[in-house]
Design goal:
Length: about 120
Amino acid sequence: MTALQKLKSEVLADGKIDADEITQIRTEIYADGVIDAEEVEFLFELNDAVSGNDNDPGWKELFVEAISAYILEDGMIDAEETALLLEKIQGDGAVDEVEKALLSNLKSGTTDFPAELEALLNK
């Protein structure tokens, strides 16, 4: 079991993300200083599992910060990143508050926000 899988199991044991777990997640995903595709997958899986639950407000902040850093690393959202976001955000059949915050942050971070993502933001 990888470190991310173990952490995911521990975090999801009670169905919500608290402040201590946010610290653990932040430490793990930023251990090497950058967010990678595996960590993005991990964050979306966590969000899908705890969406709508009584999570610490810091969860939304960490989710938006980390995924925005990955997507906007080069200052733009390309077709591959758009496809990834569409797949992950629509994967559970709903666009939740945390995902809308992500989309809003991404929109403010680029001058060329894809129309497909704009449609999700306006749902």
